[in-house]
């Protein structure tokens, strides 16, 4: 699905209006949160998953604490 979106001014920020078809595909509605991530082909917009965010936070903490072990394993 390719939909051109126009960037609009919202206060001191900028935003886009997502068509209802896009909201339906994302399975979101007004008030829900979205996550924006970098991807190899551009950016991804997904429904925010709090559980995943907590898992990633824990993974980052472990990777920071075990940096040397991870370097050795990567050899």
Automatic annotation (TrEMBL):
A Pfam family assignment = MazE_antitoxin
Task: Tell me the keywords, alphabetical order.
Answer: DNA-binding
Q: One GO molecular function term?
A: DNA binding
Repressor found in the keyword field = no
Q: Which SUPFAM superfamilies does the record match to this protein?
A: AbrB/MazE/MraZ-like
What InterPro entries does its record include?
Answer: Doc_partner, SpoVT-AbrB_dom, SpoVT-AbrB_sf
Top-rank taxon, per record: Bacteria
Q: Where is the SpoVT-AbrB domain?
A: 8-53
What is the name of this protein?
A: AbrB/MazE/SpoVT family DNA-binding domain-containing protein
